[in-house]
Design brief:
Number of helices: 14
Number of strands: 17
Shape: globular
Structural class: alpha/beta
Largest sheet: 7 strands, parallel
Strand order of the largest sheet: 6-7-8-9-10-11-12
Radius of gyration: 22 Å
Bound molecules: fe (ii) ion
Length: 424
């Protein structure tokens, strides 16, 4: 007896009319015509059945705090950091837990199965770390939450950030983060990358740094991160988040840099919604887009995953945990408009990001965890175009969220009475 049988599914690779059998939290078969009895059967005819969306870059200690204690008036990254500094002084562990759990509810309804969240490690009380370690346990059954120790104020610039970051790692935070472009000098930024990578190497951890999140074409921290990755044998375990300075760099230099990054097997995490909102703020016209060179990095063989970064926080007032919205922005800003490129943007919010996070048992094939999302769209490209409704979200073979189909009731003379907005 199966726990769940999904009939007539379409898979992201284009396979159609296949059935998916789930038992004891595992996908036991993916093939047409499965007839075994199941506690629950879902007909997915014409629907895309995908593994869950994965968000490889988020800030769960700040989410849903918009307006507390005030709004970001300039809209810049730096005012956001200053505002976050004000919020940190007044928020409690319980405040963060409440907001984070609420966000996880939203994320589940939007088909997200795993989130890598940075957590600020600069305050002596480690309020965010305490809160998110608690949340990581509380949501374990429905979201894989991976935490990055993130010294937001600069691990060297802030006098106690180093010791607090080490304390956070001792408490069980999973990944080493950093922010070299926020250190006081280029030299300090490079030193912060070296020190933090050494900590990761000693502890056997992954690295994920906010790296060169600026429009400065002279910034060189991506280069340092790639070099340190090689020096310390961290290949495949290091991610560079944002990398927006690469948008503005000299093309010859970038041709050299991308080869170095590829050798280092650096993972790349652009955050399209936030990058297009925050970058280029010092430009008049033309305004730079501030998204890193997604196509070129991908074509050099690197794993690229899109992150959402922020939802209703000091840096970004928008967002709804919709990784299809993230994919759509990445697609537009990167001009990724061929059929292959658009389908790849779906990979950038699913399988690529799962790889970056090191998730095991991810996918829709025999032996994988029975975690899937049924979308109101026939294929990945249409899913992005429509920001498709997540009809059913399955975790460990059990349904954990259902959303009704999106339909419109029309009263137009001589026209159909109902409309599926996605039907063309
Ligand atoms: Fe971030």
């Amino acid at each position: 007896m199966l726990d769940l049988l999904i009939k007539n599914a379409t898979l992201p690779d284009g396979t159609t009319d296949t059935d998916i059998a789930c038992r004891n939290g595992t996908i036991t078969a993916v093939e047409p015509g499965i007839t075994a009895e199941a506690a629950r059967v879902i007909d997915a005819t014409g629907r895309l059945v995908s593994p869950p969306f994965i968000d490889p870059h988020f800030h769960m200690d700040a989410t849903l705090s918009l307006g507390t204690p005030r709004m970001n008036v300039s809209g810049t990254l730096l005012e956001g950091i200053a505002l976050w500094g004000e919020l940190k002084q007044i928020q409690s562990v319980d405040d963060i837990v409440t907001r984070a759990l609420r966000y996880c509810d939203i994320a589940v309804s939007m088909g997200i199965g795993a989130i890598r969240s940075h957590v600020d490690t600069c305050d002596d009380s480690l309020t965010g770390v305490q809160a998110l370690l608690q949340v990581r346990e509380q949501v374990r059954d429905y979201i894989d939450l991976q935490l990055v120790a993130f010294p937001q104020d600069g691990v060297l610039r802030d006098p106690t950030a180093m010791q607090n970051t080490l304390r956070a790692l001792d408490m069980g935070v999973d990944v080493v983060g950093g922010i070299p472009h926020f250190e006081r000098t280029m030299e300090d930024g490079a030193r912060s990358v070296r020190v933090l990578c050494e900590i990761a190497a000693e502890r056997g951890l992954m690295v994920d740094m906010h790296c060169d999140e600026s429009d400065d074409p002279q910034s060189r921290h991506v280069e340092t991160l790639a070099c340190e990755t090689q020096r310390l044998g961290l290949q495949g375990r290091v991610a560079g988040s944002h990398l927006t300075s690469m948008h503005s760099m000299d093309n010859y230099y970038v041709s050299k840099l991308i080869a170095l990054m590829a050798e280092s097997e650096m993972r790349v995490i652009p955050n399209p919604l936030i990058n297009i909102m925050l970058q280029g703020r010092h430009d008049t016209y033309p305004k730079r887009r501030g998204q890193t060179r997604v196509r070129e990095l991908r074509d050099a063989g690197m794993t690229v995953g899109f992150g959402s970064d922020c939802v209703k926080d000091p840096w970004y007032s928008m967002g709804r945990a919709d990784m299809l919205d993230v994919a759509a922005m990445g697609l537009h800003v990167g001009q990724l408009s061929s059929r292959e490129d658009m389908a790849w943007c779906f990979d950038a919010v699913t399988v690529n990001s799962a790889r970056i996070m090191g998730l095991e048992g991810y996918g829709v094939s025999r032996g994988c965890k029975a975690n899937v999302v049924i979308l109101q769209a026939p294929d990945p490209i249409e899913a992005i175009r429509l920001r498709a409704t997540r009809l059913t979200v399955v975790r460990h073979g059990k349904i954990i969220s259902e959303t009704p189909e999106a339909t419109a009731a029309l009263t137009l003379p001589g026209r159909p009475g109902t409309l599926d907005p996605g039907a063309t």
